[in-house]
Automatic annotation (TrEMBL):
It holds the Pfam family BD-FAE. It comes from the Bacteria. Keywords: Hydrolase, Membrane, Transmembrane, Transmembrane helix. The chain crosses the membrane at residues 20-40. Residues 111-306 form the BD-FAE-like domain. This is BD-FAE-like domain-containing protein.
Amino acid sequence: MNSTRIAGGRGTRRRRRVAVAATAIVAAIAGIGALTGFHLQLREIDPPGSNAVSEVVTDEVVGIRTFTPPAGIRVEADLEYGTREDGTLLTLDVCRPAPSTASPTALGSDEGLPAVISIHGGSWARGDKANTDWRNVCMWLASEGIVAASVNYRLVPNVIFPSAIDDVALAVEWMRAPEQVERFDIDPTRIGAFGGSAGGNLAALLGTRGDGPLDEGSRVAAVAELSGPVGLGAAELAADDASVWLRGIIGAYLGCEPGASDANCPQAANASPATYADPSDPPFFVGHAESEVVPVGQSQRFATSLAAAGVPVELAIVPGGEHSVGILDEGMRARVAQFLRAHLGP
């Protein structure tokens, strides 16, 4: 295991908030102006809700299903964080810690709470922010003192790469905007990302894509991802002896023929987080099971690439064949929470 601690950016002062606020307001005004020319029928991503399929296909009580939410967690569901040019309404759920006299506001602090964007899996083609497993993830993060935003994003076959990553990046910007900072009492300099399976790929892309300070725009200050298919190029899939199923969902997501060469599918590199890794990126926690549906070599190579690029990374490989938040049992939750506290602060 390779684990490194870095500073979480907690000392940013109020003047930075003012600058972030001004930037967000300008962007919002520009976005409104761009949309005035459209008269589209708005539509929500389907299927929504708690009955939506999870990427954890077993009926057994494993991983995040072993978590029992404590009393007092506050959930605000179906908040709109954007509208796309095709009329898609993008929504998220916000899970907040139970009210406490130890909250930043009660203590007279102007920093606010850390926040995490939570990204569901489902082969980039299904799943929902509020299915039973991912609602549990949202409430678990809130129980750790984090304001969690569980996001929906556009899905295959309606869209292909890069629509999903553009959507979740917009969710980060939305959370960082002054209105949400005030509404949810969060610190815009301490926003992280958590994802599993396809959501792990998207969380990892949030961490490596782009450059500049980790407390601006859609940048995030820490990333934890589980079971992500993170190496989508032909060579990596061949090295993993990837299944026909995995090649198929990757091809559909990228808009390429399954098993296409890198020359015939250049977007495979753009959708692989290691492509962008550099020392400016945030610390990573990468979790995987030894014999699950996404080959463990995906996470092993990704962790090696991050370390080689100078990015702090902790790799956690566990026995068994459970996938994504199916490995988020009590022990894994403790490890991820410790990682988030180390890099986002308590």
